[in-house]
Amino acid sequence: MLFETGLPVRFYLPPEDVRLDLLHPSATRTTCAYKGVASYWAVPDTATDTTAAGTPTDVAWTYPDPLPDAVPVADMVCFFDERVDIVVDGRRGPRPLTPWS
């Protein structure tokens, strides 16, 4: 779990615990001043779930080469709580309102 000021708690999962075969790499890249450059994953058939520009909606990200303070999340997969259902210990979490909603 990763706690960041002003954001929901994020669950970073080992890639072997994620069905990456159901996702495809996205062209999206973003940079966090604390974690580094993130790479994203999208659902292959997002024809009915796209951004206003018509591009696939990213649902998860990873930091393949994080900055030193973020090494514990290296290569872990984190899903957008805003875009998918997150279930922890059998309880579905709420869909938070963030800039990524």
Low-confidence segments: none
Provide a count of the helices.
Answer: 0
Count every beta strand, where a strand is a DSSP E run of 2 or more residues.
7
Instruction: Using the CA coordinates, give the radius of gyration.
Output: 13 Å
Distance between the termini: 20 Å
Backbone structural class: mainly beta
Strand content: 25-35%
Order of helices and strands: EEEEEEE
The share of residues in helices is: under 10%
Q: Indicate the mean pLDDT.
A: 87
Cross-sheet strand order for the largest sheet: 1-5-4-3-2
> Can you summarize the main beta sheet?
5 strands, antiparallel
Sum up the overall morphology in one term.
Answer: globular
List descriptors:
single chain, 101 residues, mainly beta, five-stranded antiparallel sheet, two-stranded antiparallel ribbon, 7 strands, 0% helix
What does this structure look like?
This protein is an all-beta fold. It is 0% helix and 30% strand. The protein has a 5-stranded antiparallel β-sheet, with no helix packed on it. Strands 6-7 form a two-stranded antiparallel sheet. Strand 6 and strand 7 form a beta hairpin. It is globular. 17% of the residues are buried.
Summarize the structure.
The chain has no helices and seven strands.
